[in-house]
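Students often ask what a holo structure prediction actually looks like on paper. The answer is less mysterious than it sounds. You provide the chain, you provide the ligand, and the output is a string of discrete structure tokens encoding the 3D arrangement of the protein together with adenosine-5'-diphosphate.
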Amino acid sequence: MTVEAKKETLGFQTEVKHLLHLMIHSLYSNKEIFLRELVSNASDAADKLRFEALSNDGLYAGDSELKINISFDKDAKTITVADNGIGMTRDEVQEHIGTIAKSGTKQFFDALTGDQAKDSELIGQFGVGFYSSFIVADKVTLTTRKAGASAEEAVCWESAGEGDYTLEFVEKDTRGTEIVLHLKDAEEEFLESYRIQSVVKKFSDHISLPIIMDKEIPAETDEEGNETALARIEDEVINSASALWTRSKDDISAEEYNEFYKHVGHDYQEPLAHIHSKVEGTTEYALLLYIPGRAPFDLWDRDAKHGVKLYVRKVFITDDAEQLMPRYLRFVRGIIDTDSLPLNVSREILQQSKKISTIKGGAVKKVLTLLTSLANDEDGSKYTNFWKEFGNVIKEGVIEDSKNKDKIAKLLRFSSTHSDAEVQNVALADYVSRMQEGQEHIYYVTADSHVAAKNSPHLEIFRKKGIEVLLMSDRVDEWLLSNLTEFDSKHLQSVAKGELDLDKLDSEEDKKEQEEAGKDFESVLTQIKEILGDKVSEVRLSHRLTDSPACLVTGANDMSLNMERIMKESGQDLNMMGMGGSKPIFEINPTHALVTNIKAEQDDDRFADITQILFDQAILSEGGQLENPTEFVHKLNALLQNLLK
Ligand code: ADP
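The corresponding structure tokens follow.
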């Protein structure tokens, strides 16, 4: 094969330029992380080669001892990190080094504030990778040769980290990637072996490949000062070089666990919690799983990769094993290593493997147990943090994982009328423990915002009676509630659906009043129904309102108005789905002055106008949209004008 040796100069993607600039300025206080990032990439490259070589032994080309070499040159002021991993082709270099392919890039740039401290946190979440080299280097030369390619197909990439980079074919004798950092003048501190060793020890000790550094052995002399051995350079392994998860828990420090997380999780911050365990039996596996401290940018991206890597007997197999974690635990990071699968597993085998589903079942159980213990922890701050970041994802679990539904239900947290802030911190068990004598159900209201839920007219009677109501305003809540109808043998009941059977909580006096009002208002209800026609299925007196004149209620088995709105917004045709057509019930409050006044109204037109206004108002308080807003405004203004005459 003949290859063109032409040297190309290419411009960085705008985002890369922006990221580089930010990184160099905001990560400066943490500059030594460049070494961790390069070592981490080298280790991934070795993992990939080991996996590919399972089906193509020839890729090793006689060199199967995978390792990372770090060396430095004091005179040239360079540090070199080299690996004999998978390497890259020219196209791959262009694709991976010089562009950012990560999902969530746009959200990332949108989230930047210009405040250095905050932005450096964001960069941390985004993952910095290869570009962190430019924190310490003013020029970086990357030479790489893909496993299986010939010496002349190697590629050299070079850049000063500003606007552009060059790319050209070069010769490279060995497979893998070599990165030379030309250090800035102020960064000479890294040209000392003890400095490099201590950084590697701190960040990369857990890397399972040997990290080798040249060590200068000084000349040896005997008592008389005669040289007995010449000064020489020897290779020294400067990390523990054993897969962290294979070590015993007692021998692993908190720092080591954290650093391993940063490596597998591609995160820059500490994890919230981890679980490390070994399962024995017919299917044997070890797992080391982490709950991140923060949601990644691509949490809501359907195509985002899953975060758990599968290893078989310490050989990396895939980091895209959907089969290992359900979607609602997609934020979990870490590794699962099993002895019970063959090394040459294919995607198809993975998909059908019974062993994989056993492992998944076990891993899910472990994660749920870890979350439960965080939730029950006396210092609830970790769980509060977890819920803030991942609560909405966990809610999907009630729908997705019916087997673990009860466990997941205990993990749920909601806002409620009994907690002041908007934070979701009320567990269903807390709610149940606060239920009143005679209260049978767990009550909730759904709306499209917290403010709307909190101010819903449906809550009035509950406020009056001091009954707690859960406030739900996340999109997923409607689906959650259609899958979670009971907790601790108590029915979950919407305050805006069906008849409220608060009878047991009503006093004798209340009941008598209601009966009398019923008779009084019979003809008014009929008249209102005639005016509203088929916009409503029924008009009745309300037992839920104290301050508002009217509200809309849906039938016990109908879709909530909030759900209807969500479905419409997402472009679903409810009629086509056979779900349209259930009309709401219009309830009026017989104790409200407006309502008692229309009862006395003699003018039929005015009666009709006020009825229409009350109906439209009820729609508005549900967060709904009026069919004809202008007409509403006209009617209301006409009434106001009358008032001011
Ligand atoms: P990340 O590691 O988070 O994906 P990087 O910017 O560090 O981001 O690297 C981008 C990509 O470049 C990697 O995903 C990998 O495909 C490739 N790459 C980087 N370093 C190496 C290496 N030493 N060997 C092979 N490929 C590498």
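The mean pLDDT is 88.
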